[in-house]
Amino acid sequence: MNFLYLLILLAISALIVRHLHRFSRSCSSLDQSMSLTPIMNHALIRLNSAPSALLLLFCCNTLWAGDWSPEGEPGTTNNYTRASNQGGIINTRHNLTYSYITGYANAMTPYQNKYGEVCVYCHTPHGAANNIKAPLWNRTVNPTSAYNTYEGYRLNGPVDVPGPASLACLSCHDGTLPVDSVMNMPGSNGYSRAQQGSVNTSFLDTWNNPDSTTNMGFGTPCGDSPCFHASMGAEGNGSVQSGKCMRCHQDGNNYGIPAFSGYIIGTDLRNDHPVGVAYPDPPETFDFRPGMAALSNGSTYFDDDNDGHMDSNEVRLYDVGGGPMVECASCHDPHGVPSAGAGSEMAPSFLRFTNEESAMCYACHVK
After folding, report:
1. Contact at 8 Å (CB) between 166 and 275?
2. How confident is the model at residue 173, as a pLDDT?
3. How far is it, in rounded angstroms, from Cα 360 to Cα 352?
């Protein structure tokens, strides 16, 4: 019975892909309204037959069901991510190839280059950026002047500009730079040093992307280049944002997929925990935790397990010449940190450990 059911689904899928492909060519713009209701109305008029309409309705209902809703456990029904959040970055949302999304991995090809490699969206083994002191960095980064820094209570000194361990994160999460904007694309003849500091979409268009007409059945065909090299979008705007990730991942979307507004920090950092700020010295005077261990490179960390090694689940400060500073990566690890040892689920929000009962806050703040 299961095998017969699978054969029926495969047959239905083949019909739907054909009809959706035809429908996509009739659309005047990929960025037209993607609310299911107008799409369905337009498609049903085009298909001219009740059986085909029913098949399309069945397919859309299947693809956009609540399996991608933000609530729930990762990798399960009613999840906030299709990734399992176990076993390494490949199984997290920072895998921008989306290989963990079975059947839907090409859904974003109208909005970004699909490089087919997990690490390349941030790192390159050769020709790395020289405008940021981040490990073999491959992404475009904004200059520090692009950011308004924290202006609240300053403890024992002023807030400096974001350091490399924050600029790297902001290259996606400030919402202004395309998620596929890299200097060195996989293979040969896909390199541009200028891309490290500014976005050239013509360079990004040279990548041979999967044909956008083969994915999800919506929008105008864009051939081998995306219709958009999308950034995440503007901070504080949970509505639809044309040409951005927020085009589909808006708050309360009808597609059952996670909303992204909570992950967009923006360029105004005055409403965020300060980065580029020195840890108070002496810490006790300002109700901060003392006792950080120091490394030879000037970085310091809380050696909570007393092993003399800066483990991924330990809070740290970064020093690139101006003394140890609090940065985004002081509390977050973009590769994910197992919450309870190897093989366990990653700590939420790529934190170095869970913030249950404010544990992350208490790592530094003595209150």
Report:
1. yes
2. 97
3. 8
